[in-house]
Please model this.
Amino acid sequence: MKQREITANAQKTHVCDLCAIICIYRSVSRKSNALHIFCRLSLVNYTSNKVPMISIRNIVKQYAGHKALSGVSMEIEKGKVFGLLGPNGAGKTSLIRILNMITAPDGGEVLFNGEHLGRKHIEQIGYMPEERGLYKKMEIGEQVLYLAQLKGLSRHEAMRRSKMWFEKLQIQAWWNKKIEDLSKGMQQKAQFVATVLHEPELLILDEPFSGFDPVNADIIKNEILELNRNGTTIIFSTHRMESVEELCDTIALLNRSHKILDGKVTEIKNSYRNGTYLLQYAGDKAVAGPDAPFSVLDEKLAGTGHSMKLRMNPGRTSNEALHYMLPQATITHFEEVVPTMNEIFIRTVNEQVNK
Amino acid sequence: MNKILLIIQREYLSRVKKKSFIVLTFLVPALFIAMFALIAYIAVKGSDLGEERKVQVIDQTGVFEGKLQNTATMKYVYTGGSFEQAKASFLKEGYNYLLLIPANEGDVELLSEKNPSALTIESIESGLSRVAEARRLKAAGIDTAMLAQAQRRIAVKAKQITEAGEKDAQTYTAYAIGFLSAFLIYLCLLIYGTQVMRGVIEEKVSRIVEVIISSVRPMQLMLGKIIGVGLVGLTQFVLWIVISVGLSIAGGSIMAKKVTQSQQAQVQQMQQIAEDRKEIRQMAKPDNAAQTIMQSIESIPVAYTVSCFLFYFLFGYLIYSALFAAVGSAVDNETETQQFVFPITLPIIFTFALAQSFIINNPDSPLSVWLSMIPFTSPIAMMIRIPFGVPGWQLALSMFLLVVGFLITAWAAARIYRVGILMYGKKASYKELIKWFMYRE
Model:
């Protein structure tokens, strides 16, 4: 976040804030094209805003019987929540495993922060797999410490942070309990703590809400959003479309090892608008004649009045539809029907299947 | 490297802290001591433990009457009468056996309700033979005392000639040490190898493995587990030895007193019984026997043997546990391990079976030498051979091959492991394993 502000200022002055101060202090004139003439922020940091967190370029992954990923490319911007969607077997887990360096791709490359993805990035990635698990016989606190130490934290630091997190999620009383003695929700919370304890830049969550009751799912969702506000990039693999609309900035849709759709959620939804509106009115049934600027898709009784789904004829606007209906009925409700992500998901996948 | 240490630490502590570890650590030496105490007790009091058996003897030759030696378990009662009469009535009269000696001394029959034990038959046979032999010798005019003198056994004293000079060869001690160390290695390969396999299955089943290998390489996890479990084994061993030695010293001194007393009693008995067998007296003299054992133990190069044992224990364990880890990664639960575990344990069991029967008797035969070179059989085969003396170059070559064998095995196992741990619900076949092995990183 801090970096972004510096960059924003720098666009005006061409020198970062710190260097500008040093310039004044040393009474040196500002060089117009150098951002960091004195401070140690590197060029990579300067461009960090434009370099995506993850660039996936033409990834191919082949297993004995089938192709898991065939030439998949996508970019994941910094500080965003990215939704990785797709039906079962589409290749999501394969892609996630490649990002985690659990497996290597057969072709293509992955850039992390503009660099080739390698072992040194492991400590900047946090991963919560869909199939979750912890050592059953191990104490929960010890377990979280162990996993955090494997990610490179010192024991002391891991202790400090996990105490804080346990307090925050109200599971501190269970620190010395064995996993097998805990409820499922409690285990999941511990797992979440273990995932985020090393404060990764990139958090990869595979179906993070499965197994949580609504209350705990909400707690975890808020924690995820808070991490995101503090600058963590989040990749989020799920089937649950309502959470996609709620959380994700951008998505990519995988099906049968291919990427079939990606982009900003709002843009995707706009591109799937097709002039369909929902109109509700009180009183008797209205009649839409042949001169109406729309065609009626569906009409039914709703409470004391009626509900009508209509599609605008080409070139006509929603105002014209209202204008046409106003003399006939008392309009109580009028809205555009924008397809939900769920509909887009199903439609796109089916289109591809038919192809 | 740091991460491997973390993994080793966890694997080690999580096992050492378990109740089962503590129980096993104290129980096994106690059981061992109890076992030895029982053996010693039976050895000392064995003759008193068997119940007395009555043998009805009908001797038509008249030669054996009163000459068969009664022992603690055998009592001969001489009766007259015909065979048929005796056969009809002996069960009712409370005899266990009926011994029929016809006039011509051949076709001696022993009748009983149950099958007689081999030991019983043998003791009766030797009793009869001895009496018959003495009678025949007497008939031929040979003095039995002179004969005993002439028959005196010659004891061979085995000595090894080495560059350092002559020394006493301790064949029996070599036997014992070779067998014991081979047995321990055999046991450990199976026990701790299986523990590694269980650990891998546990991680796979609880699905934690995916989280861990997003932090460390699969190879690190595998090696960390193997080394951690190996250290647990080593700890257990050291504790067993310390506890056993402690208990033995405490219990041993008490036992030794009793054994000596009863042995002396036995010796006196034997002296009376077998006056003509003087060598028995010699053999059974407790002081001499104890001295001999002490001497032969001292003559074994302890540091050399122990370090060889540790080396073969360690690398034998490493090579097999890598295989066990690969098996653990290939299955979803323990019941599926059967088909893979069998071929792994086969060379262990095969070598151990051969070790007891063949290698220990022919430590320098070509087969023994070959077995002590092949990495999968050398930990057991070489430990049998070492107390008998192994040429330096053979030992060096065997160790070298074992280390190389371990590196290759660990590499191959890791290739299967890294794929296997991520495969769920797929029944692995050998074909599948080969495919996994061929996958690129």
User: Anything to note?
Assistant: Residues 218-273 of chain B form the longest helix (56 residues). Residues 53 and 174 of chain B are 40 Å apart (CA to CA). The radius of gyration of chain B is 30 Å. The domain at 49-147 of chain B is CATH 3.40.190.10 (D-Maltodextrin-Binding Protein; domain 2).
